[in-house]
């Protein structure tokens, strides 16, 4: 089997390579494969919820396993690796170095992902993507739960290794003529998100070990029957995973910083504002983790502290939005597929942020918490912002990797279906949450409003599903049969705008 | 890159910060008021376990799955769990608090309308989480 790239090569040559573009390609293909797999699970869930009663999935245990693996897959096996994919391609080029700082370590970090994915998919655990004790300690069935814990452990190590590599590549291997402040914003995105990873992820790595020994009965950190406290886990978990949401979103914002200026044929409105916003988020993002825990019985003072910490992070996101719009303002915009995804992404990013402010305001969170509102909220980020930014960038990158153009018509149809579907699904979920429907339920009573909204959501999900099927066809067909791209200027923007790719990279 | 004015961005950031301050202050104030429990609130002990709710009134009467209360009175729930974390929720009255094993969490409410309202679990707790439901029955004893 050969891969149709700029110069076709047998697949094993890519698999055993440590060159940054090859590792990037492996990351990219793996992450997209997991995106389609995780998305397919979501469609199963939506068939089941289409109306009350049993539709497709025979029992609640199976349903619970499906949504657990859906969430775990898309966060850890799609979003994180897809960010690493583009980082591998571009960070060395952007800092003008021949490869990543540690090429072998880079390949090792990638090759930890397939076994972790296998553990997660073969186990099929049921305790949700956050595995709260005491359920996860005393009630969740093994070996699925234990396989999930090991899978996540491996992924945590992998992302720490990957982040060390990005930080060292940027800080130590950057060309001396390129000051840090002038480095492209996408490289800044990798620097800041990697630093967050290094500070945040070890906490969860520790919590996973504690969870495992608790499950084995050797310890009782989180088990009140043995003198422990399950709330402690939630603190450890969210200390990692609130910053993690910024680890997920920052690269996507970075992609948009590549897309907007090129397709607007104008420089970024303010490079320094972008740097400031990334840096601010890196620091302030650590002050808000317990906004996920208002309902665990925290004191009024604790809740106030974390509300203030959460609100303090909002201006940074608002600065990016402004920067994007100001970059487009007065530009000669070429509405090709990549910028359409980026524009859709900003619109959804903004809506998602507004919903986030509602969650942070303590009295309102007692209406939204653990209802479908929260499901809508974070999907507007993970799908509406992060997936949109990433998919837009996949289109943008397509000619660079394959030497061919994707079908512009199919790309636009994919965008329109996804945008319409995303609005239908996730805006409706916000309202459904206000009507009180809890998340993570296999079946629900026939309350008329709930039934109507679930039908709308399931239809929207299938619209997204059709779009994704078109995407898959476009990727496969165009990489083999698409028309050859003009490698100096594949989007016809006037050559100087297609920056990183004409930079001749010393290849093997 | 430079050469264009940056004041629109500062104005915009200023507006965002002002809005956030307003939201934060208002939220702080409202939460402070709603958390103040009236002196005469009657205590109801709530216990979650996979996958039922049990209630114990001050006079010792116990109920399973159903909870009878009187319109206009104030009640303080003392919520805990026997096994895993659940979340006690009466959505129509914005009562929502986790039932955590080893801890007792409190929240109060005062029913204003006669009728039946849904009680549900809002924290994932396993197999029958989806059907860990109950009914709040508000009666008017004075009438
Ligand atoms: C930047 C990208 C963001 C992502 C990827 C993101 C993601 C998430 C996720 C995954 C959850 C739910 C976790 C769960 O319960 O399973 C969540 C909840 C929450 N988010 Fe965000 N979020 C983002 C931004 C924001 C912003 C800007 C705010 C506030 C202004 C915010 C406020 C909240 C709050 C308060 C909750 C807790 C809601 C609850 O459980 O009651 N988020 N977010
Ligand atoms: Cu958070
Ligand atoms: Cu439950």
Characterization of the model:
- The complex is a heterodimer of chains A (508) and B (143).
- In chain A, 71% of the residues lie in helices and 1% in strands.
- Chain A has 18 helices and two strands.
- Chain A has a two-stranded antiparallel ribbon.
- The two termini of chain A are 21 Å apart.
- With 143 residues, chain B is α+β, with helices and mostly antiparallel strands.
- Chain B has one helix at residues 7-34; strands at 42-49, 52-56, 62-64, 66-70, 75-81, 86-90, 95-99, 105-109, 115-121, 134-139.
- The longest helix of chain B has 28 residues, at 7-34.
- In chain B, 34% of the residues are buried.
- In chain B, a hairpin with a 2-residue loop joins strand 1 and strand 2.
- The radius of gyration of chain B is 21 Å and the shape is elongated.
- Classes of the chains: A mainly alpha (508), B alpha+beta (143).
- Chains A and B meet through helix 3, helix 6, helix 11, helix 12 and helix 14 of A and helix 1, strand 7 and strand 9 of B.
- The structure holds protoporphyrin IX containing FE and copper (II) ion (2 copies).
- The site of one copper (II) ion has 7 residues of chain B, from loops.
Give the arrangement of secondary structure elements.
The complex is a heterodimer of chains A (508) and B (143).
Chain A: E1 2-3, E2 9-10, H1 11-15, H2 20-49, H3 60-94, H4 103-111, H5 113-123, H6 135-139, H7 144-173, H8 185-215, H9 230-264, H10 271-284, H11 300-312, H12 314-328, H13 337-360, H14 362-368, H15 372-402, H16 408-434, H17 448-481, H18 499-502
Chain B: H1 7-34, E1 42-49, E2 52-56, E3 62-64, E4 66-70, E5 75-81, E6 86-90, E7 95-99, E8 105-109, E9 115-121, E10 134-139
Parallel strand pairs in B: 1-5, 4-10
Antiparallel strand pairs in B: 1-2, 2-3, 5-8, 6-7, 6-9, 9-10
